[in-house]
Amino acid sequence: MGEMNRPVRAGFHFWWPVTVRWGDMDAMGHVNNMVYFQYVESARVGYCEAWGWESRDMSSARQGPVVVSQTFNYRRQLHYPAEVEVGLECTEIRRRSFVLSCAIFRKGSDEVIGDGTCAMAWLDYGADKAVELPAAVRERLAKG
Amino acid sequence: MGEMNRPVRAGFHFWWPVTVRWGDMDAMGHVNNMVYFQYVESARVGYCEAWGWESRDMSSARQGPVVVSQTFNYRRQLHYPAEVEVGLECTEIRRRSFVLSCAIFRKGSDEVIGDGTCAMAWLDYGADKAVELPAAVRERLAKG
Amino acid sequence: MGEMNRPVRAGFHFWWPVTVRWGDMDAMGHVNNMVYFQYVESARVGYCEAWGWESRDMSSARQGPVVVSQTFNYRRQLHYPAEVEVGLECTEIRRRSFVLSCAIFRKGSDEVIGDGTCAMAWLDYGADKAVELPAAVRERLAKG
Amino acid sequence: MGEMNRPVRAGFHFWWPVTVRWGDMDAMGHVNNMVYFQYVESARVGYCEAWGWESRDMSSARQGPVVVSQTFNYRRQLHYPAEVEVGLECTEIRRRSFVLSCAIFRKGSDEVIGDGTCAMAWLDYGADKAVELPAAVRERLAKG
């Protein structure tokens, strides 16, 4: 988590804006640790929808992404009011899974609030097991 | 809750935009009942800050608003993705308390998602009891 | 909301325990206003499940309860750590709807943290409209 | 995240029970990814309070733990209703920081819902910088 590894805006092609809500803060008076994962989730859903995936269709005939693991480094405290932007980038593609790297920047600034990764598997929802990434998804991911 | 009592945009002078997050939805696949109260809270904090109240200063030397009761009528289901606007209006001023009426509209539309009220008391935080509304607050509230 | 109307434990036949989580508190350092509605929701789901309703089956062939409006009176601040108990009672049965009265008590105590109501309609989920309460549901509700 | 690295109950000395709330589920119909971090937070607050730290005292004269980074591996989906237990163990002590390993087990079972780590720094809240772990804290952490 050293300054050396600090992400930069140029590393991300997909962006999602988030308005911090007063209620995102906890009894410490700052945005709660878990809420950063909701900001990243918002971006991740937007990213997957950008390829045509529908977050509300979980029918058993379908396949889709599922989160396998997450990491997050908290670099700055965040307080209401604030506007942030979540950057996402696919940084690894495997046979049945992929990794999204993410970072939360203060809007219009290079200040990194935090950054992390989401490892995602491609799941056959009916069988509840990982299957090969379809060629179309693989192609999209290859674009960043 | 009849259609007769449906609020209209002209009834509100203070407006607060909210972007629905994917994570605002619950296992029913729609925005959770409790989350509407977070949208209203966001607007209410913005309304009070517009008069100079600071939501993070709870020092015991201070006075400020506190929610005494709330009501909400659910008129439409709401799903991600959506943009809404919360309208607020002070509709009653008493000696030590006031009532804010609120309604959530779909952005740029007359569609009412829901509406309600927040009864607020003016609290001496140190003494934890309601005190008279300061003249300056009373004046602001009188503007809507 | 006077002391005269303060609910008493004897008024409730259905009870649901809730453990306050640290994360239920907001930047004011007390349990957030909206979180009380989650405590009541937890009890309401438990109440409906006690008659055999399944909260995860929203198939369009089904009917079930839906929240139409809610009210809540905040009587005491609540802080982590705490254990509370939500009491529920059906206090009104109409043709296509019913009203649940609720109160949150500190565990094992007569201290009322807050109380309110949930007006519920009986919905045909496929048609998205209120229909008559089935006789079996009406009978259960009549028991409190 | 292989089965080889699956945590076992014997690896944890501190335990915290959590009751899954209906509202912890998201539109996928399972407990939301971010909510696991709230379960871990609940345990972490309990763990720190067990040494006498007070989560609500953030006065600038104080020092205390702050989360620097988190990881979590999702191994099983979780649905309401469920009871889980979060195990915590201090698995690394450095000069100004420490690492807590955590795992969420189904209550009374060896089924691992997920597991992860929280890297914590010891912060001087007034100066907003990491300082050396006090000897008393270091001793407690050494116990697990």
CATH topology of chain A: Thiol Ester Dehydrase, Chain A
- Structural class of the helix and strand makeup of chain A? alpha+beta
Q: CATH-wise, what's the superfamily of chain A?
A: Hotdog Thioesterase
Listing every helix as H and every strand as E from the N terminus to the C terminus, the arrangement of chain A reads EHEEEEEH
* CATH architecture label of chain A: Roll
Shape of chain A: globular
The largest interface is: A-D, 23 and 23 residues
Give me the count of strands of chain A. Answer: 6
**If you compute it from the alpha carbons, what radius of gyration of chain A comes out, rounded to the nearest whole angstrom?**
16 Å
Number of domains of chain A: 1
For the biggest sheet of chain A, the summary is:
6 strands, antiparallel
Oligomeric assembly? homotetramer
Helix content of chain A: 10-25%
- Average pLDDT taken over every residue of chain A: 92
